[in-house]
Design brief:
27 strands; 4 domains; elongated; 5-stranded mixed beta sheet; Immunoglobulin-like
């Protein structure tokens, strides 16, 4: 039976009035009894028993004020109950009573960490790091201190220190999967992609099911359609769907690792360490936004003037009198700000209630359109770097063309990158089909470009493939750690008896004579010097032959501007710009057989610099059938090859 608190207080006063020696012994005995009772009550994990335990611990610390054990247990109980200020005061008292006590420093670190997560005060972050660091130094075997320290050091931008802390966590407890996660994602952030991939592969299967689910879940970055389809599948089908999803998102299929998936897992790990609530088995909206878009550029807590008590519903606006804390995460490079609100003041943030519009955060499409350094998942639900940490961007250009042969379609892809004749560049070409199964892989060194041999290097690849949908990717690497990737989705159609034209392939000059199949000198960037001609290659299929096997056809080529007028429509209407100059010509030819391989040179010296379309229309003069092809190129300013993009 519990003794009322008033009686405890009376007994405490009587004990304080007893003789000193006997009093001290009695106080300690009574304090121990209260402490043991409190520990038993805390073990029951209910609201009422925790309140009783707090009373008992408070009295125990009054009876035996020099006992650091009682103070530490009370501090932890305060923190669990949400009495952060009281917890901080008790932890600080323990550090004075027992300066070498590592758990007290760890507990104080938890207090400052919680304060930083709530108020975004960098002073609190610094104090949390200091406390966890002290706890870890005093007890290097305390794996939790190292694990708490790792994500906070990353938030401070101290990658090397975070990596060292993660290594110490793994050294302290190699069997703890969270320690393996810490090393995995700090290794990834350090650019050690292979080690990170291996460590994630070991750690994730060993996590608790509710935590492992966060790493397996693709719904945060998948479209609503994909998510719906996924949940309708059986277990084995879901595994295949997940595999195909990640293969589709892979920014560099030439590498054995999926860098985007590793980036996602790294974000999940940081969100897990910072925002995951073990009691609720989930994180709040902060974790959800973090794994989709990464850390915000800037964050604000309860910004001045922000109205945080409005809920829109149909034609009405409802105003709530209940207080709410508001957190705003800003992503200026995505043209996006994310508002999250804590309506229950429980430090669990949700998106604002809006019964009219979808309030799920999305980047601004205009901001996305100018980004060439990022990969965007379906419906813009996730944004990821195009390159992994530690890689430098190598600007590359790509060109793809589809041709027909007697055995079926043939795919050609060319790539170009800046480089002198002494630079070492190599490229991996990977083609996957609609099931994300690899159907072609070739590695080749880049050679000096015929268009500009001193400044650019090129490589081209070709493979016969059956009709279907494909993704063709070329990954270019340099000996200096630079990387560039070109990914193109294309469809190869089955041959048909109708007149047809291949893709128009821009080249630096005529194809090498006598080579079958023809291999033009590629010009993947489509850049043409100010004083140069436009060179192109295409093939014509299924020309109608007469009895002697001859065919007659006409091809018409024209060059038109591809520049867009950036003005708004009313300005274009009121003050139209004069049409850009164009070039057009036609020619009749005879050919032996139904297949014609055609090389074309178009003089463009009279055109101003800019982007242009090369349009080609072929007419069979026997049947009147027509086919068309197009290619885009850029005429450079007359300042030499240095202006080439």
């Amino acid at each position: 039976m519990r003794i009322p608190r008033s009686i405890h207080f009376t007994l405490l006063l009587l004990a304080l009035a007893a003789p000193a020696g006997a009093s001290s012994q009695a106080h300690r005995q009574e304090a121990r009894k209260l402490y043991d009772q409190a520990v038993a009550h805390l073990a029951q994990r209910t609201f009422d028993t925790r309140r009783i335990a707090l009373d008992e611990l408070e009295q125990a610390t009054l009876l035996d004020p020099e006992n650091a054990e009682y103070e530490l247990t009370l501090a932890r109980a305060y923190l669990q109950a949400g009495h952060v200020r009281s917890a901080r005061q008790r932890f600080e008292r323990v550090t004075r009573l027992a300066p070498e006590d590592a758990p007290a420093r760890y507990g104080l670190g938890l207090v400052w960490r919680r304060d930083w997560l709530k108020y975004l005060d960098h002073t609190s972050l610094d104090r949390a790091v200091e406390c966890f660091s002290t706890a870890a130094r005093k007890d290097p075997s305390m794996v939790d201190a190292w694990l708490m320290l790792t994500p906070l050091l990353l938030e401070q931008g101290r990658l090397n220190a975070a990596t060292a802390a993660a290594q110490r966590a793994l050294l302290a407890r190699p069997d703890v999967p969270e320690a393996q996660l810490a090393v995995a994602y700090t290794r990834f952030r350090s650019g050690d992609i292979e080690a990170a991939d291996s460590l994630f592969g070991v750690a994730i299967p060993r996590l608790r099911p509710e935590v492992r689910e966060r790493y397996d879940d693709i719904s945060p970055i998948a479209s609503e359609r994909d998510t719906t389809r996924f949940h309708r599948l059986g277990l084995m089908e879901q595994m295949d769907f997940r595999r195909r999803f990640w293969k589709e998102q892979d920014p560099d299929p030439a590498t054995p690792e999926n860098e985007l998936q590793l980036e996602y897992w790294s974000r999940v790990t940081q969100a897990y360490f910072l925002y995951y609530d073990a009691r609720l088995h989930q994180w709040d909206e902060r974790g959800e936004v973090y794994v989709r878009y990464g850390p915000p550029t800037h964050a604000e807590y309860n910004p001045i003037g922000f109205e945080n008590r409005i809920i829109r519903s149909g034609m009405f606006t409802l105003v709530s009198d209940a207080p709410a804390n508001t957190l705003v995460w800003l992503y200026p490079d995505l043209g996006m700000s994310v508002v999250m609100q804590d309506w229950l003041l429980s430090e669990q943030y949700l998106l604002p209630a809006d019964l009219i519009e979808d309030n799920d955060p999305r980047p601004n499409p205009a901001a996305v359109a100018i980004r060439d350094d990022a990969v965007f998942t379906h419906d813009l639900k996730g944004v990821f770097p195009a390159l992994p940490p530690g890689s430098r961007r190598l600007p590359v250009s790509g060109e793809i063309a589809r041709f027909q042969t007697e055995s079926g379609p043939r795919l050609i892809q060319a790539v170009e990158a800046p480089g002198s004749p002494t630079d070492s560049l190599w490229a991996d070409w990977v083609v996957t089909d609609s099931a994300e199964v690899e159907v072609a892989r070739v590695r080749r060194s880049l050679t000096p470009s015929p268009c500009d041999p001193t400044e650019y290097r090129v490589a081209d690849f070709a493979a016969p493939l059956p009709p279907g949908n494909y993704r063709a990717s070329v990954s270019v690497r340099s000996a200096h750690g630079e990387r560039g990737v070109v990914r193109v989705e294309t469809r190869l159609n089955a041959d048909s008896p109708a007149l047809a034209l291949s893709d128009v392939l821009l080249s630096c000059g005529p194809p090498e004579p006598g080579t079958i199949p023809v291999r033009p000198s590629p010009n993947p960037s489509g850049a043409v010097g100010a004083n140069d001609d436009v060179n192109a290659y295409f093939e014509i299929y299924h020309l109608t032959q007469d009895k002697q096997g001859s065919a007659r056809f006409e091809y018409i080529y024209s060059v038109r501007s591809a520049e867009r007028d950036p003005r708004i429509w009313i300005q274009r209407l009121v003050s139209p710009r004069p049409p850009a100059p164009s070039i057009s010509a036609s020619r009749e030819e005879e050919n032996v057989g139904a297949l014609r391989r055609q090389y074309l040179t178009v003089p463009i010296q009279t055109l101003p610099p800019g982007r242009y379309w090369l349009d080609i229309r072929v007419r069979d003069l026997t049947t009147g059938d027509e086919a068309e092809g197009h290619a885009q190129f850029q005429k450079l300013e007359p300042t030499g090859p240095a202006t080439k993009p």
